[in-house]
Structures are given as C-alpha cells and as structure tokens.
Amino acid sequence: MVLDKNTAKKTAELLLQINAIKLKPENPFSWASGWKSPIYCDNRIILSYPVIRNFIREEMAKQVETLYGKPDIIAGVATGAIGIGALVADFLGLPFIYVRPEPKAHGRKNQIEGQLEPNQTVVVIEDLISTGKSSLNAVDALKESGANVKGMLAIFTYGFDVAQTNFEERNVSLNTLSDYDHLIEQASETHFIKEDQLNTLLEWRKNPSKWEQ
Q1: What is the pLDDT of residues 143-154, one digit of tens each?
Q2: What strands, in cross-sheet order, belong to the sheet with 73-77?
Q3: Between the CA atoms of 41, 42, 48 and 50, what dihedral angle is there, to the nearest 10 degrees?
Q4: Are 145 and 117 in contact (CB under 8 A)?
Q5: Residue 136 phi/psi, 5° resolution?
Q6: 196: domain range?
Q7: Can you give the CATH number for the domain in which 180 is found?
C-alpha cells in the first residue's frame, strides 16, 4: 500500500530521472525468474545520488514512524536494501542489522548480521518487491530469532497479486513509497513513454509470468 500519493509520484519521478527504473517495452529484459519484462528496477543506484538518496531516506524514516512508531531496530534485506536501510536507521538514530538470504556457510554461520535481542521490535526495509518471496524469507529469519516484526517498508513494488497474497497469508504489513501504478502515471504524464509503450506496459502488468512481446 502507498501511504502518500505525492510522495509516490515524486519517488517515481526521481527513479525515472536517474534510470533506476528502465522502461524498454520494445526490447524486454529477462529476469532471473525467467520472466520477460518491459521494465527493470535497480534501486541500488539511488545510493550514488546524494540528494535523491536523502529524499528517499527521509521519506522512509517519516513513514516508518507514521506507520509503525519508532521500533527498537531497523533491518535491511541483503543485499539491495543494506545501504538504504542503514541510512534510514541512521536518520532515526536506531541500531541497524541486515538479513542474508540464507545463513553463511562458514564462520559463525549467521543469517542475521548485527545485534538482535529477543522481543525487540523491528521494521524491515526493502528496496524492491516483486513476488515478495525473498522479503518474507527475511521476515521469517527475524521472527525465528525472536524479533517482533512490526512490518515492512519498501521503495517500490510492482504490485503483483501474488505478492499481495503472500504478504496477507503471512500476516505481514507492507507499505511502499511508490508502486507500478504511480510509475506508469508519472511516465505517461511527463511523456517519458509513448502511447504504444504505455499499452505494452499495461498489458504486461496483467499477467507478467505469461507475457510475450
């Protein structure tokens, strides 16, 4: 769910501006899942733009407090949300931890890096939500370690039905700064995309796993 429409459109505008979100309806990307997609999102590039990363940091920090109150700890999902998660934690003056996709195979074999005590309240920061599988894997790891996970805040979501279902089934609250609908609205209003490209992007969104150019 998007909390603020103005923030959602501004976030979409900035992501398009720095090519963190690339739209190529005529030459689709191949995702790791095997899906073909006219859109690719890499929010890690935000870290290279101080003004934009500060905007994202401050908006996420404000929404963390609005939605969940001030938690004990901010957790980032590795690897994409480590940077922005640490920035949000710093802005709020809170400890930071991050969660690996799986425990390390060596050393202390940690999956959670940093200091986490049982029953501490945690808000999870994510950069991107597609199906939600890896994000929810991080939530599971935190809960198994005794954390009280208040919810998750991400920069952007594609808004897939499967993601919504996954979060609802696990009873995990998800909010995002922006989403696919606001991105398409912003790209269309600013003539970032042409009408035929818009139609392709809307068509893909209906059934992304089965879409063919």
Answers
A1: 999 999 999 999
A2: 112-113, 96-99, 73-77, 121-129, 148-157, 174-179
A3: 50
A4: no
A5: -70, -30
A6: 5-206
A7: 3.40.50.2020
